[in-house]
Design goal:
Oligomer: heterodimer
Number of domains of chain A: 1
Radius of gyration of chain B: 24 Å
CATH superfamily of the largest domain in chain B: Response regulator
Order of helices and strands of chain B: EHEHEHEHEHHHHHH
CATH topology of chain A: Rossmann fold
CATH class of chain A: Alpha Beta
Number of strands of chain B: 5
Order of helices and strands of chain A: EHEHEHEEEH
Strand content of chain B: 5-15%
Helix content of chain B: 40-55%
Largest sheet of chain B: 5 strands, parallel
Strand order of the largest sheet of chain B: 2-1-3-4-5
Largest interface: A-B, 20 and 21 residues
Number of helices of chain B: 10
Chain lengths: 126, 219
């Protein structure tokens, strides 16, 4: 977690990108309930995610990934934004995986809300 | 005016995030009371048999979702099943409607859309896109053609088929209807021809209550 000038821990800044409507609502609710995270942007596609993440100084981008080839979208974004952690969640929410410093890190199958938060923490505070 | 009772809702999905998330989000809706969640059809059917439930919210991305709809309708016919994560494929949509879905929201829908669909299902309403509506119109027309392609039986012929189904011979039918045996034979001949069957028993089977009854009134 980043710190303010006074040494206070700052919440991890998250951009949500290309998550299907209902999953977007669910993920946002989970994040809103966690004091160490905050949603600072919500965009419809990955190209915009790259631009917004840079402009708002995001620490993490959570993306909706296609069930067909989930790792590709996350890997491409991770490569484009090497300083930003990426977490991809399958559109049907049956799996999630993280990328840190452009490299795949951890994958979780059928995560619960606490498991998803643990994944977000693992990629932002290794 | 008294406030309407909250809609008792069961959330059914094998996906943990959706199960937890929808349960929490729907529980915050004043018009909805979440009675619980189920992660399998068997669990849902058991709950339907034991509890009073108005609406089942079912994840249509689960395996054998259509069978699940049918099982739930059989367990509690008064419950309305609303599907979420329904694909946009026409055949898939028609199959969902035929299985008994009272409402649905597509994969990209929001939880607000789902809440709306739940309320509508209870009121006997459903919202479909113009494309889906057109698909359902075509399906109804096709089903109607299938029915009307069959020749109609007269009231007397239907009466005779009923008597055949009760096991009566031509002679007994003649006595029952106070007509000649030759007349009964003529009727039976016409019935077999119209229904394109060769045996009296087949004709009777075709016109049993669960089978479509092609009478002149229906055309």
């Amino acid at each position: 977690m980043r710190s303010s000038r006074e040494g206070r821990a700052l919440p991890t800044r998250i951009v949500l990108a290309a998550l299907p409507g209902m999953l977007d609502d669910i993920v946002r609710r989970i994040i809103d309930a966690a004091p160490d995270f905050e949603v600072v942007g919500d965009v419809a596609d990955l190209r915009e995610a790259e631009r917004v993440a840079g402009s708002v100084g995001a620490d993490l981008v959570i993306i909706g990934t296609s069930a067909d080839d989930p790792p590709l979208a996350g890997a491409a974004l991770a490569e484009a934004c090497p300083g930003i952690a990426i977490v991809g969640i399958d559109a049907d929410a049956r799996g999630a995986r993280g990328w840190l410093a452009g490299r795949p890190s951890i994958a979780v199958t059928d995560p619960s809300a606490p498991e998803l938060l643990a994944l977000l923490r693992s990629v932002t505070r290794p | 005016m008294s406030k309407p009772a909250p809609i008792r809702t069961l959330v059914v999905t094998d996906v943990c995030l959706y199960r937890e998330g929808l349960c929490h989000i729907l529980a915050n809706e004043p018009a909805i009371s979440v009675t619980g969640t189920a992660s399998s059809t068997d669990e849902a059917v058991a709950r339907l048999a034991a509890e009073s439930i108005d609406v089942v919210v079912l994840d249509m991305s689960c395996a054998n979702a259509l069978d699940s709809v049918r099982a739930m309708m059989a367990a509690l016919p008064t419950a309305q099943v609303v599907g979420f994560a329904v694909g946009i494929d026409e055949a898939e949509l028609v199959a969902c409607v035929e299985a008994g879905l009272a409402g649905y929201v597509p994969r990209h829908a929001t939880t607000r859309d789902l809440v709306d669909a739940i309320g509508r299902a209870v009121r006997g309403e459903a919202v479909c896109s113009p494309t889906v509506t057109a698909t359902l119109f075509r399906r109804v027309a096709a089903l109607s053609r299938q029915c009307t392609d069959r020749p109609a039986l007269s009231e007397r012929e239907v009466e005779i088929v009923d008597l055949i189904d009760r096991g009566l011979s031509n002679k007994e039918i003649a006595r029952e209807l106070r007509i000649g045996v030759a007349t009964v034979k003529n009727h039976v001949h016409n019935i077999l021809e119209k229904l394109r069957v060769r045996r009296r028993a087949e004709a009777a089977a075709r016109l049993r209550p669960h089978a479509p009854r092609p009478t002149s009134q229906q055309i």
